[in-house]
Write a structure and sequence with these properties.
This protein is mostly helical and 498 residues long. It contains 21 helices and eight strands. α4 runs antiparallel to α7, α8 runs parallel beside α11 and α12 packs antiparallel against α16. The longest helix has 26 residues. It is globular and about 75 Å long. It starts with a helix and ends in a 12-residue tail after the last helix.
Length: 498
């Protein structure tokens, strides 16, 4: 990310004053900051660029693990691994409660604080090129929209903070939760502001920064959500399709012929990616696949030699693993299967195969002298995802989604495509096909839980939620007791007690 650690130098100093410790927001985490320090920092373009890079560093810290937990781990794609789960079964067994509520929103407000500072101060700074200033502001608005979208999908209504915290008073520090509709009003407003500011429709050169095409893809996903979950209906579906169609026109965007190559460390920023979070050696720690791979000493000696070669050197800890539901969803002629997971079967005494374990192959990193390194970029948006969102919007509007679905399937099945060609059916049949395609295409990319909630299929598809359709509150996450203890105005989500 342009040697992000080096470019962060000035911003890291500022953060020591602004954040006064580990976090910028300590009640929601909202800790007062020095207005003198803030105004003294926001004086030139270099300072602003340092702040922008700092924003992405904080974002990466959350994406390394938490976004995967919020976006997927409660779905049907994961189950027990070979290692002790350390409580992770609470996610896919859907037994969360306020004492074990998963990652909290606190650090997300640190990112929001960063965006609020930029939105307030960057307009007053002189840039060499006005387009660079506008692009920076557009990224801040887009990031703030994405963070609030993440929170709204996870917890529903959350406190809205749109100004940096530069002083202390009870009104500033202790915020009540806004309604989910108010949160989405802010999200949509931020997206409109961002789209007016981006100077062109190009992707960032590294794909590691927000851009107008990525912002439009976010807008499409937002409006699909509100169209389905907040009664936005046909108007929102129309807006979603328009935004997604515009995103698809970005120059140089397309499907890679080889599915596996989308995720490889040596192929960062490839043509399929609209936006990814950059992980580089010496700049970041491991991403979440370190808890989904397999340790060397857990690879059995009786493993098939070809599979052993494909897995290569072990690494990480197999605390969760691809579920049987996920593993059985792929056909043998789908190239996505081997690129997504590996299933290890070993022979019984009579020679018949017995399931031993499985691991995720998408973000498997690379091996060097220190071992396996899980520092592949985490993809937020890519072209196949975009195509399937277009198909979803078309289907919601009563249009034929065949073109987009078949583009994805043609890459997946290659010469066997004719056996898997999609044919337009009823709205319900098409929704089932799109949801299945998203499972096969996007497994372990932090999408599945939110997909199931958006399609209103979580209680049908997830084993631990079946026969619990009277517990609709489970679509939202509980708010942790630690979060509530910091702000007496925060009220727990219904169904989770006080």
């Amino acid at each position: 990310m342009k040697n992000i650690i080096k470019s962060l130098g000035k911003y890291a100093v500022l953060s020591g004053f602004l954040c006064l410790g580990a976090s910028c927001t300590d009640q929601l985490e909202l800790t007062p900051v020095s207005t003198i320090t803030a105004s003294g920092f926001w004086v030139n373009e270099d300072n602003a660029n340092g702040a922008l890079n700092g924003l992405y560093v904080r974002f990466r810290d959350e994406v390394s693990n938490n976004f995967f937990f919020w976006g997927e781990v409660r779905s049907e794609t994961l189950s027990y691994g070979l290692q002790a789960s350390e409580g992770r079964e609470r996610y896919f067994e859907n037994t969360l409660d306020p004492t074990f509520a998963g990652p909290t929103w606190l650090r997300l407000y640190t990112i929001i604080h960063d965006t609020n500072l930029m939105i307030k101060y960057v307009p007053e700074i002189k840039f060499n090129r006005e387009a660079d200033k506008n692009r920076m502001l557009a990224q801040a608005y887009t990031m703030r929209a994405f963070i609030y979208f993440t929170m709204a999908r996870t917890w529903g209504g959350v406190p809205i903070v749109t100004n940096p915290t530069e002083g202390y008073d009870a009104e500033t520090t202790f915020r009540e939760r806004a309604t989910v509709n108010e949160v989405f009003d802010l999200i949509k407003s931020d997206l409109d502001n961002a789209l007016q500011l981006y100077p062109d429709n190009t992707l960032s050169s590294s794909k590691a920064f927000w851009s107008k095409p990525a912002c439009n893809m976010l807008k499409g996903e937002v409006y699909l959500w509100t169209g389905k979950k907040l009664s936005g209906g046909q108007a929102d579906f129309t807006t979603a399709l328009q935004a997604l169609t515009e995103a698809s026109t970005a120059p140089g965007l397309g499907l890679l012929p080889n599915f596996d190559q989308i995720f490889r460390y040596h192929n960062k920023g490839n043509a399929e990616i609209l936006f990814a979070v950059r992980f580089l050696d010496l700049e970041s720690g491991s991403n979440y696949n370190s808890s989904l791979y397999i340790r060397d000493d857990e690879i059995p000696s009786s493993i098939d030699p070809e599979l052993e070669k494909r897995i290569g050197q072990g690494g990480g800890l197999n605390r969760m693993a691809p579920s049987q539901i996920l593993r059985s969803a792929y056909s043998q002629d789908d190239q996505r299967k081997d690129a997504t997971f590996a299933e290890i079967n070993i022979p019984n005494q009579d020679g018949t195969p017995r399931y031993y374990g499985s691991l995720v192959m998408k973000y498997r990193g690379f091996v060097d002298a220190s071992g396996r390194r899980f520092i592949d970029d985490i993809i937020i948006y890519r072209y196949a995802d975009l195509l399937l969102l277009v198909a979803e919007a078309k289907n919601a509007l009563g249009q034929d989604p065949s073109l987009e679905i078949n583009k994805v399937r043609k890459r997946a099945y290659g010469e066997a495509f004719e056996n898997h060609q999609f044919v337009n059916g009823s709205t319900e049949e098409n929704n089932e096909a799109i949801l299945k395609e998203r499972l096969l295409e996007l497994a372990f990319e932090g999408k599945r839980w939110w997909d199931l909630v958006r399609f209103d299929m979580a209680f049908e598809k997830i084993p631990s939620l079946q026969n619990r359709s009277n517990q609709r509150h489970l679509e939202l996450w509980p708010i942790s007791l630690s979060t509530i203890s910091l702000n007496s105005k925060i009220i727990q989500n219904p169904g989770y007690g006080n």
